[in-house]
Each structure stands twice: as C-alpha cells, then as structure tokens.
Design goal:
The protein is an alpha/beta fold and 418 residues long. The protein has helices spanning 22-30, 76-93, 107-115, 128-133, 138-157, 168-172, 194-205, 225-237, 254-262, 277-285, 301-308, 336-345, 349-363, 368-382, 402-416; strands at residues 2-10, 12-14, 17-21, 36-42, 54-58, 66-68, 99-103, 120-124, 160-163, 178-181, 210-215, 243-248, 269-273, 289-292, 313-316, 330-331. Strand 11 (210-215), helix 8 and strand 12 (243-248) form a beta-alpha-beta unit. Helix 8 (225-237) packs across helix 12 (336-345). It is globular, with a radius of gyration of 22 Å. The two termini are 37 Å apart.
C-alpha cells in the first residue's frame, strides 16, 4: 500500500538522507504502518530559514520518495501561480497512491483526492481561526472566518482525522469520519532521575535567582511573551527582582526587545536564539518555571517537553493548554496580574513540588511507546480503506461561488505564512 504525506513543512535532502524539524518526525514515522510512504513537502528556502531547525534525520525515507511543492509564501502573485502548479502536481501524484495524508486541513488536497476517488486522513494540529484572528495583519484578521469554515469543511469530509487534542479541536472542527484524539509529540524515554534533580535544584535556588522560560516564536504576536515581560514589571514594583525570563526561539523579536527596554526590565529578559533539541532540554533542566502565555494553541509541544523535565507550568486557558496544565495554574490570555500571581505561587515549596511531580507523571503519557499504543490501532485499522473506492465524497464543482471561495482560501493560506 502507498500513502502520500502532504505538508508545507520543509524536508531537506543532504548526504543522500532526508531531514526534517523535530516537531514532525514522529508524525511521519507513525504513518509507516501503511507500507510505502511518500512525501509532498516544502523545499527549504535559503533566504527564508525554517522557524525551527532541521535537525532530525528520516532514515526510513528514501530521498526518491520526496517531491516538492512550489513555494506559496514568496509573494501574492507567485502564491496564486504556484497554487495552480501545486494542484497540477497533486493530480499527477495522487493517482499512484492508495491514501492521502494531509498535515493540516486543506481544501485543495481534499478536492483533488476525492475527485480521484482517494481517501484522505487529515492531521489537525491547530486552529486556523485563532491563528489568523491574532495575526499582526488586519487582512489576516478579516480572513479568519473564511479560514475557519474552510477548515471545518475539509475536516468534516475527511475519511480519517487525527486530532492532537483530546477535546478542543474536536469540538471546534468535528468530522463525519473515523477519528482519534492523540498528541503527536514524542519526548523520548524518560529518565527517572529527572524529578529528583529538579526538586534538589529548586531547593538550592530558594531565595536566589528564579529562571522563567518560554519556548515559541518571538516574532508571532499570538505566543504572548510580552505579557510575561509585563508581569516582571509588576513583580519588580512589588519588590521581587530575582526573576529572570529566558526565551527560546529563532527570529529577531524586535517588538519584545522594545517592550522590555521601554519597561526597564531588559536586564531581566534574555533571548537565547534557536536551539537544537538537546540544548532545549539542557536549558529546561536549568530553569525553574515554564510559562506558555499564548493567545491560541493546539496542544503545545513545548509544554509537554517542559513537563517531561518536571518543570512546574503556567499557561493561558486557550486551545489544548487546559488539557495539559492543572486548572489552578491557568490564567486568561493577556492577564498580566494573573501571570504575576501564579509565578509567585511557586515560591511555596509544597506547591512547587506537587506541580513538578504531577507534570512529570503526566508527561509519561507522551513517551514513544505510549503514543504508538494509542495511534497504532487507529492507523492500522484505517489501512484497510487504502484502495481507491467509488463512494467517497466528491466536491461539487458546479457551486457558483467556488471560484471566489478558492481564491480567498489561497489568499488566506498565503497570509498565514507572512
């Protein structure tokens, strides 16, 4: 059986091997159960580096199993031109496949696949509505409702859907197909000494510098790091000057630099740049509190990684974050006072130890073996539907608004990449 995995994430071929970012490796590997796996992916652009480093080798994927999409994030004109070229490429590749896997809902993938009688498995990793609604561009905000309805339609009509959340994305984007709610995050095998090291480290630091950390794009407004910076200001005014904030991410972060400087806390805010996986874990091990202040999220990988290092976590009550973090450590998005209060709550040793222990235990649900147990039956059970059939839903090409809708959908996709 042949399955084609379609994603705009970059796949790099070097030294006769395929490489990807860490966030997508496990997802791709899970679908090997179908047999022969092929990829239709984004081509790395030397002038536009990937948001996350391409550090993970895919030894199971032959380079000749990879085809590249035409880039749709260079300009508005090239976006529309290359969308047409990508559709033509899909029409060429899809007939050879038994199953199409769409990493993220795509009306274009669904349309081409169903017109060819091919079933679609859609992997839902986030909410298009929220990501566009909190985008820095007004046009993106305007297109948010369209993106929302387009995603709902694609997910609803997919034969199979893999949600990374347990409830949030399922409730917002229901499907008529077979589905599973399971994270695609793999934290590897957990070292039983991590928890003990964490508690000992915190006891040594009691009354000294406390390190707060966030992993996430420093150029995306919806990640919300500015509200942690503003919380530092409140803590400083109250006499708590021993908190230091560390941000892991590539990018410039000009807005965050400016905010920290204007609020006179730049000496407490540290930009660490882009780190590889081992460096991220090392940095997490040397921190005291993890904060995810996002305005929107799916099921954040960074929170699960922090939990696996036994870090107490604070997060905003949006998206899939409440599925990970205890309610007592959640705050409404943009709640600066709430963040400051939660940060101070971990000065209580009992509170810190309990949160650290609970997070470490919960993170064990995301080991590679656990994820395989959860996804294996769902995916292998779906493999029997791989052969092209005649009863799959087909797109109604006679719809009078289809041309306009397609154009707006493509524009919406382009805005997300800016």
């Amino acid at each position: 059986m042949k399955a084609l995995f379609v994603t705009h994430d970059y796949i790099e071929i070097k030294n006769n091997s395929c490489w990807c970012k860490n966030a997508i490796k496990v997802t791709i590997e899970n679908f090997l159960v179908f047999g022969e796996l092929y990829l239709l992916a984004g081509r790395p652009n030397p002038n536009k580096p990937a948001a996350q480093p391409i550090t993970e080798e895919l030894p199971f994927l032959p380079p000749n199993h990879v085809e590249y999409l035409y880039p749709t994030n260079l300009s508005v004109v090239s976006h529309f031109k290359n969308e047409k070229r990508n559709k033509k490429l899909m029409k060429k590749l899809f007939p050879r496949m038994d199953l199409i896997i769409s990493y993220g809902p795509s009306g274009q993938v669904l349309e081409v696949a169903h017109n060819l009688g091919k079933p679609v498995l859609t992997v839902v990793i986030g909410c298009p509505w929220d990501s566009l609604r909190h985008h820095r561009l007004l046009l993106a905000n305007i297109l948010a409702p369209l993106s929302y309805f387009s995603a709902r339609s694609a997910i609803k009509k997919s034969e199979f859907v893999h949600y990374v959340t347990t409830d949030f994305l399922q409730n917002r984007y229901p499907t008529d197909g077979k589905s599973i709610g399971c994270s695609d995050v793999d934290i590897g095998e957990m070292d039983t000494s991590i928890l003990n090291k964490r508690l000992k480290l915190h006891q040594k630091r009691k009354g000294k510098i406390i390190k707060i950390i966030t992993t996430g794009s420093i150029d995306a407004n919806y990640k919300g790091q500015e509200y942690v910076i503003k919380a530092l200001v409140l803590l400083k005014k109250a006499g708590y000057t021993h908190f230091q904030y560390y941000l892991i991410s590539g990018g410039k972060g000009e807005k965050l630099h400016q905010i920290a400087k204007s609020l006179q806390v730049e000496d407490q805010v540290h930009f660490l740049g882009r780190l590889n996986r081992s460096q991220v874990f090392e940095t997490l091990d040397n921190a005291d509190i993890y904060v995810q202040p996002s305005l929107t999220e799916g099921l954040p990988r960074s929170v699960i990684e922090a939990m696996s290092r036994a870090l107490p976590c604070i997060g905003s009550n949006v998206g899939g974050i409440p599925e990970l973090i205890e309610e007592e450590f959640l705050v409404p998005p943009k709640d600066v006072k709430g963040l400051a209060k939660k940060i101070l709550s971990f000065q209580d040793e009992k509170t810190y130890q309990e949160a650290s222990t609970k997070n470490y235990c919960k993170a064990q649900n995301f080991t590679k073996q656990k994820l395989k147990e959860k996804t294996g039956l769902f995916i292998s059970g779906g493999s029997q539907y791989g052969k092209a059939g005649e009863n799959f839903i087909r797109i109604n090409l006679a719809c009078p608004t289809k041309i306009l809708t397609d154009a707006l959908n493509r524009l919406s996709s382009f805005i997300k990449t800016l």
